[in-house]
Amino acid sequence: MRTAYTSDQIRAAERALMARLPEGTLMSRAASGLASACVRALARVRGLVYGSRVVLLIGSGDNGGDALYAGARLAARGARVDAILAGSRAHQAGLAALRAAGGRAAEFAPDAARELVSAADLVMDGLVGIGSAGALREPYGTLAGLVADAPGLVVAVDVPSGVDASTGRVDGPAVRAHATVTFGAYKIGLLVDPGASFCGTVELVDIGLGPYLPDADVAAPTAGDVAGLLPSPAAESDKYRRGVLGIVAGSDTFTGAAVLSVGGAIRAGAGMVRFASVEESVRYVRARWPEAVTTVLAPGSTGVLDDIGRVQAWVVGPGLGTGSHARDLVAEILGTDLPVLVDADGLTHVARDRSLLRRTGPTLLTPHAGELARLLDVPREDVEARRIEHVRRAAHELGATVLLKGSTTLVAEEDRPVRVNSTGTPWLATGGTGDVLSGIAGALLAGGLSCYDAASCAAYLHGLAGRAAAAGSARGARPGGEAAIAALDVAEALPDVVRAL
Ligand SMILES: NC(=O)C1=CN([C@@H]2O[C@H](COP(=O)(O)OP(=O)(O)OC[C@H]3O[C@@H](n4cnc5c(N)ncnc54)[C@H](O)[C@@H]3O)[C@@H](O)[C@H]2O)[C@@H](O)CC1
Ligand SMILES: Nc1ncnc2c1ncn2[C@@H]1O[C@H](COP(=O)(O)OP(=O)(O)O)[C@@H](O)[C@H]1O
Ligand SMILES: [K+]
User: Fold this and answer.
1) Is residue 338 part of a domain?
2) Of 63, 144, 167, 355, which has the fewest CB atoms closer than 10 Å, so is most exposed?
3) What sequence ranges are listed for the domain YjeF C-terminal (predicted)?
4) Are 198 and 271 contained in the same domain?
5) Which ligand is nearest to the CA of 161?
6) Closest ligand, as measured to the CA of 62
7) Whose CA is nearest to atom 44 of ligand 1?
8) Which domain holds residue 277?
9) Helix, strand or coil for residue 244?
10) From the CB of 390, is ligand 2 less than 6 Å away?
């Protein structure tokens, strides 16, 4: 599990560690790791450090200090290093070290800054780190804008300036980096969008903080975590023991969602899928997935669960419709004691009547930002800007496990760390991929995982499968070697990504 922390948690740990070490030790560890990362990056793009042009953007705090010391190390290896001092002051010892190593420094001036940045092989962003508060002030905002057009590599120090390290919130201009070198521990804002999308690759430099960090409120499962949680059949398994998933989805108008949800469940390893819907949807599901056992629901019929047969978990909602019959089906399924995943139209019914969630069995809700906004009655933009806060609030208020879909998928449950999904690709932003996700998570619920684990494993596998489908290979893509996918491709890519875990 990759754990992540708020700025306050990191600061407290740093204070505790610093009290036991000679002054300057931590900054020296940070600067050394940062300089090594820049050396490796320069070696990759230029072949050597000597003669490369490095520009440091320096703010008034210790973030600037890190950049100045790292810049001094690069200058000592023959790089031409220029520091742009953008703050009201600069870290004095760092500045002296840079100058002693042959680097130069000057106060910010717009034209000179533009010229330096546009000629740099590498720009180091040391404007603000975990001491940042609110939107970037001038001239930092202008510098973040200049960096956007920089032809060279952009390396953010600790956190891209303009990204709130504790939440991932971005209010105004921010530095968009190719790489972020972060110290001591991951900050939450580096893993959660919108902040995460400003980081590029994130490299963690160990400065010895580990023993001083508290229990994490946010964690990102790794491939190993997911592999360890996934159910796999044993010698004595049969289809019932592996887990039977009931899916109630689709309608006369929406047949595709049902096909996709069933596909996700089958490819994710459900022992059996029992699918129930109106005739039109059943026809499409049967044609594509002869493995599913189907039940045709007469229009308007209720009291149907016994007809469908025994299951270990339910998925309800994709393409189901928002009318009263659909509502009755959602209510009937939520009336059982079994684990239930509610998605799509099912969420509309729950948003209209939260009392549907008063139940004894475990519930997993899988909204996208718009659906979560409706569940909480807040603007969608607020959910997108402050995803962690809203997914936590939903789990608390609704008494359910909540998986919030989107560019960073999050899973929240009361009293548990929010799980951040680290896989995925923007190619997944295409109609129907969410339906596939519902089937994957449903299969894992039926296989015995808790809502929390089923949701986080499903998001992980779904993201990997999306990447594999876009790349045409479970082993990932060469840069630029990706192409558009259809939702069903995601389901079809699942077995390969599970094999490669
Ligand atoms: N505390 C420690 O033990 C360590 C800290 N390190 C570095 O120190 C950084 C934190 O340093 P600081 O606490 O000095 O804080 P920062 O350097 O992150 O920022 C504080 C400064 O930025 C200004 N500022 C804040 N928000 C701003 C905004 N929106 N626009 C413009 N200016 C703004 C403040 O007025 C203050 O002068 C970390 O991110 C990391 O880079 C590392 O050296 C590792 C060890
Ligand atoms: N920009 C993005 N980057 C990564 N994943 C995304 C992005 N946009 C959407 N997704 C993923 O694609 C899926 C879309 O699901 P959803 O919004 O329910 O669409 P649909 O209802 O069409 O299936 C979710 O798993 C979501 O996390
Ligand atoms: K920074």
Assistant:
1) yes
2) 355
3) 222-501
4) no
5) 3
6) 1
7) 27
8) 223-227+237-500
9) strand
10) no
Q: Whose structure tokens read 């973040």?
A: 144
Look at residue 68 and tell me if it is in a domain. yes
Q: How many domains does the chain have?
A: 2
Residue 12 sits in the same domain as residue 150 = yes
Question: Residue 444 in contact with residue 457, Cβ under 8 Å?
Answer: yes
pLDDT at 300 over 90: no
Whether 92 is in a domain gets the answer: yes
Q: Which amino acid is at 374?
A: R
Reported as half-sphere exposure (CB side, CA atoms, 13 A), residue 62 has a value of 13
Looking at the structure, do residues 193 and 292 belong to the same domain, yes or no? no
> Do residue 211 and residue 70 come from a single domain?
yes
Indicate which CATH number applies to the domain containing 145. Answer: 3.40.50.10260
pLDDT band at 303; cut points 50, 70, 90 = confident
- Where are the alpha helices (H) located in 273-407, listed in sequence order? 279-288, 305-308, 324-334, 345-352, 369-376, 380-385, 387-398
178 and 153 Cβ atoms separated by less than 8 Å: yes
Q: Which of 315, 427, 428, 456 to mutate to test the pocket of ligand 2 (most atoms within 8 A of CB)?
A: 428
What's the pLDDT tens digit per position in 328-359? 999 999 999 999 999 999 999 999 999 999 99
Q: Is residue 232 part of a domain?
A: no
Q: Are 63 and 91 in contact (CB under 8 A)?
A: no
pLDDT at 299: 87
- State how far the Cα of 5 lies from the Cα of 126, in Å rounded to an integer: 20
% of the chain surpassing 90 pLDDT? 94
Is the Cβ atom of 27 under 6 angstroms away from ligand 1? yes
Task: Say how many Å lie between the CA of residue 39 and the centre of ligand 3.
Answer: 18
Is 377 labelled as part of a ligand binding site? no
pLDDT at 72 over 70: yes
- Cβ of 317 closer than 6 Å to ligand 2, yes or no, is no
Query: What phi and psi values does residue 304 have, to the nearest 5 degrees?
Result: -100, -5
324 by Cβ neighbours in 10 Å (0-12 / 13-18 / 19+) ranks as: exposed
**pLDDT tens figures, 419-446:** 999 999 999 999 999 999 999 999 999 9
Question: CB of 260 within 8 A of CB of 487?
Answer: yes
Instruction: Quote the CA–CA distance of 470 and 60 in Å, as a whole number.
Output: 43
Q: Tell me the residue type at 145.
A: G
**One domain for residues 203 and 290:** no
